[in-house]
Amino acid sequence: MKIKSKTITASSPGKLMLLGEHAVVFGFPCLVxxxxxxxxxxxxxxxxxxxxxxxxxxxxxRFIQKAVQFFKQKYQINQSVCLTTQSDFSARVGLGxxxxxxxxxxxxxxxxxxxxxxxxxxxxxxxxxxxxxxxVGSGFDIAAATxxxxxxxxxxxxxxxxxxxxLPSLIIGYSGIKADTPSLIKKVQADYQKNPQxxxxxxQDISCLxxxxxxxxxxxxxxxxxxxxNQNHLLLxxxxxxxxxxxxxxxxxxxxxxxxxxxxxxxxxxCMIALCPQAKSQAVAEAIxxxxxxxxxxxxxxxxxxxxxx
Length: 310
Ligand code: PMV
Fold this sequence. Notes:
Blueprint: E1 7-19, E2 29-46, E3 52-54, H1 58-75, E4 80-87, H2 97-112, H3 119-134, H4 140-147, E5 150-154, E6 159-163, E7 170-174, H5 181-194, H6 196-218, H7 222-238, H8 244-255, E8 260-264, E9 271-275, H9 281-290, E10 294-295, E11 306-308
Parallel strand pairs: 3-4
Antiparallel strand pairs: 1-2, 1-11, 2-4, 2-5, 5-6, 7-9, 7-10, 8-9
């Protein structure tokens, strides 16, 4: 009788930054939500030849390969594996496909080899992979992919606090331009070196918004949270990371009745987000689309990494 070999599938959610990007790289807190578009990794053992990777998106492959390498080194495994991926979202929109694929790879390997990794270990290993490849980054995306929900987060996982919060009517508009996150982080780092007082003051102000935002989310005070998003966008403009297209989409959302709107992520491109009263969400979505934004239909507060039945 032929025995069917074990196949494990794990999936992780994408993410959106709610408040605090860039400042978080410098040790300040941020608020991030996991979103319900997921990336699946299926893993099995193979007996012949080297590891095999079937990933439709090339960018993911580097992360999977590094994750497999780190996992095998740490747990002293020689067996070859075959990994395939399947994604609900495109790597181009900035929802965090690299972090999602890395986290899901570690959970799949953990079950495949009976290692029983905790969420914290999956986070730590995934963050090491990100740093090995990208050199820079706070790991907020790794935290969202691992833990899910809405998190209050400090760089490197110094604080990962799940919030009992909700976010009704979040509209997401893709600017049509791919953000170059590592370059934008480096630009902000260079500005910080040139003018530390000015940049530090911006980070401190952003950090105050994040702390207030946490309170407002817990109190379900969405108009106030929206106002904090607007202030955060102004500070990101001051930091020089917004773009005319993102500014236009943000302005459009506000004119159509959003409580607040801002760019989400490194800036320069990728997505903007708008928080709206339920009754205005249709109008805001239509206005963003008319202004040239591509609507990305995802819900916040999604579950973190998990096993799938396949
Ligand atoms: O571009 P994204 O969606 O990966 O977001 C980057 C957010 C930064 O704060 C600029 C970087 C980071 O790692 O926190």
